[in-house]
Amino acid sequence: YFIGYLEIMDIKDAYQRQELDNYSEKEFHKRFLDVGPADFETVKKCILKAWQWRIKSRMSSNSTDFWQSTG
Question: Which of 31, 38, 46, 47 has fewest C-beta within 10 Å?
Fold first, then answer.
């Protein structure tokens, strides 16, 4: 159980560093649970990729950039 705790704290740390002042505990947990059953590496990639997509969509008026870059 402790290894799982450490993995979750690592993901949370990375998410907090990226969100800075916009960090929300509730939003972190929502994003974490929205990924569904997956290994920690996949959860981390999904959470951080969602963040990168939000930044790109703010910089571009075309919100389909995320799908084009992953397809």
Answer: 38
